Amino acid sequence: MASGVIVKALAGFYYVQDGERYVQCRARGLFREKKQTPLVGDQVIYEAENETEGYIMALKARKNELSRPPVANIDQAILVFSAREPDLQLFLLDKLLIHIAIQEIDTLIVVTKIDLLEPSARKHIAEQMEVYREIGYQVLFTSAKDRVAVNDLCPYLANRISVLAGQSGVGKSSLLNVLSPSLQLETNKISTHLGRGRHTTRHVELLPLFSGWIADTPGFSSLDFTAVAVEDVRFYFPEFVSRMDGCKYHGCLHDKEPACAVKQAVANDEIAETRYKHYLQFLEEIRKQKRRYSR
Ligand SMILES: Nc1nc2c(ncn2[C@@H]2O[C@H](COP(=O)(O)OP(=O)(O)O)[C@@H](O)[C@H]2O)c(=O)[nH]1
Ligand SMILES: [Mg+2]
Ligand SMILES: [Zn+2]
Q1: pLDDT tens across 119-132, in order?
Q2: 165: which strand partners?
Q3: Same domain? 261 vs 286
Q4: Best mutation site among 188, 193, 207, 220 for ligand 1, i.e. most ligand atoms within 8 A of its Cβ?
Q5: Percentage of the chain modeled with pLDDT above 70
Q6: For 192, which of 37, 58, 221, 253 is 20 to 30 Å away at the CA?
Q7: Domain presence at residue 222
């Protein structure tokens, strides 16, 4: 039996890449019994019926999995934001960073369309992003239009599975087309919001790129917090974690508590106020959700 990775799932078929081989597989009934669903990114054992068709027999253990988009074994999330059109959305960035941290996936932040910025606006955004660099995140500034710094992405892509995340229209597909023109991805395709339960033709596919794999996914920007507890959010803000020993109260939520080292650091401009405000907004969001569910 052979092994490979699922690079596409569509209409009941799983497409397995095994070196040069590309095999269209069905999953055996045993997955239904085990309540297991193969995902794009899964390492699988398959049985080939012939050169191009086969059956998936087993899944290897997963390192992680995302439900939106449905991908397994992700090494890295590349969070793409446009500097303009649409404007840089730091609230969404902070939210995505929490979700990524929960899954223990590496993160790269890309701010693209910088050609749309005048020098003064460029400086402002550079300062805003410096906050993230100081916390320890990698940040790249790119323009697909002017081909600025797009190749700086290459070293991040080799030998791993990356997922590109970001709102529709920020320039994800355009970046990939510059990196690998043969991909010829459609750009400017606005994916309209699809309600729960409605049929969607969206699918995730891993594209080979610089000896790694990348998933260009529509969506993955509307996240909610059902899975995070109020007491846990603070652990996903590295600049809070490094200071929490200084808080008077053990278990301080850095909210209403007195003698809080985090609030003190915000007052001293050592922690960005935007990050702290977003943190409080997240707490409020989760508390509201909880009230809604407990009713
Ligand atoms: N000015 C400018 N426009 C860009 C850039 N990258 C993408 N765009 C435009 O932004 C729109 C959305 O790009 P697309 O790659 O489809 O975004 P996606 O939905 O995130 O995949 C298209 O009209 C692109 O031409 C860029 O670097 N500069
Ligand atoms: Mg796209
Ligand atoms: Zn505190």
Answers
A1: 999 999 999 999 99
A2: 79
A3: yes
A4: 188
A5: 91
A6: 37
A7: no
